[in-house]
Structure to design on (292 residues):
């Protein structure tokens, strides 16, 4: 069964890559802005968030093709956040997905503008979905809330403010639920919105994605300690270098492993009530064991 789900994920990823590759192809090119946008947007990666949008749409009985603009809008938000997180004023990283980060290649000013443009383009993509106006409006509200000060940007602010001092577990969980979890949750909810899912379905999807997002971040913190730069495609040990608060510094590796297992169990349980939740169950379990 694992191979069948791997193949299904690969098909989703191919749809996403094709859509993203065409997203700015017909635009007028202004200096090196679009090139910088595409440099990061088309750099590969697991595409977990847009896959989650497509598969949640399918889970709730919707049309995956109709959900594709929602999925790719989420990925544009995610890519913008990576470009800005890597900047010298933030995490000051020079490697991302095995390549020099955007500001190393194009300079800080262009990197900032590329991130700004991707964030704005994300919401333009949502309006291109072949769905009813009320679903598009609901999607814009969902994604903008998750990406802004009440979600991802708020989490990054807490992350920056927490450097150099120890956060307790409650503070750390809030930080990561905003910085990482909010966009993962929105990705899943957008799939439900695209399908016209019920409030009960959306609640279950949200519970699943929130547990998945927390497990993803805890595993990410573990990999920063136990993995290698070659495997991850980015520097390892940077959390410690930047005096970042992580689940490893709070719980230790063994405690993190236990927490990932518990959160994965919660994600799987949230799928109860869906007719065909097998892909989501497989995804949660495979992400819990990932090595990069």
């Amino acid at each position: 069964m694992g191979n069948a789900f791997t193949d299904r994920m690969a098909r989703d990823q191919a749809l996403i890559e094709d859509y993203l590759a065409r997203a700015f192809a017909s635009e007028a090119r202004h200096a090196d802005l679009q090139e910088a946008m595409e440099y990061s947007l088309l750099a590969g990666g697991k595409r977990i968030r847009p896959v989650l949008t497509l598969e949640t749409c399918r889970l709730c009985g919707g049309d995956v093709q109709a959900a594709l603009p929602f999925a790719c809008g989420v990925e544009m938000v995610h890519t913008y956040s990576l470009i800005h997180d890597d900047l010298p004023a933030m995490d000051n990283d020079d490697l991302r997905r095995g390549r020099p980060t955007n500001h190393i290649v194009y300079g800080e000013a262009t990197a900032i503008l590329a991130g700004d443009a991707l964030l704005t383009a994300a919401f333009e993509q949502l309006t291109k979905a072949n769905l009813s106006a009320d679903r598009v409006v609901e999607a814009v509200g969902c994604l903008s809330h998750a990406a802004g000060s009440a979600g991802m940007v708020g989490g990054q602010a807490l992350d920056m403010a927490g450097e150099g001092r120890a956060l307790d577990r409650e503070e750390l969980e809030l930080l990561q639920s905003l910085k990482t979890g909010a966009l993962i949750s929105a990705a899943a909810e957008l799939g439900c919105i695209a399908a016209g899912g019920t409030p009960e379905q959306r609640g279950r999807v949200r519970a699943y994605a929130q547990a998945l997002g927390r497990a993803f971040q805890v595993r990410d913190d573990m990999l920063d300690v136990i993995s290698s730069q070659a495997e991850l495609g980015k520097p390892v040990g940077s959390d410690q270098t930047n005096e970042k608060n992580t689940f490893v510094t709070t719980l230790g590796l063994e405690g993190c492993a236990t927490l990932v297992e518990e959160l994965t169990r919660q994600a799987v349980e949230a799928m109860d009530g869906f007719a065909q939740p097998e892909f989501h169950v497989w995804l949660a379990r495979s992400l819990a064991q990932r090595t990069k």
The chain has a mean pLDDT of 93. Residues 199-226 form the longest helix (28 residues). The longest strand covers residues 95-96.
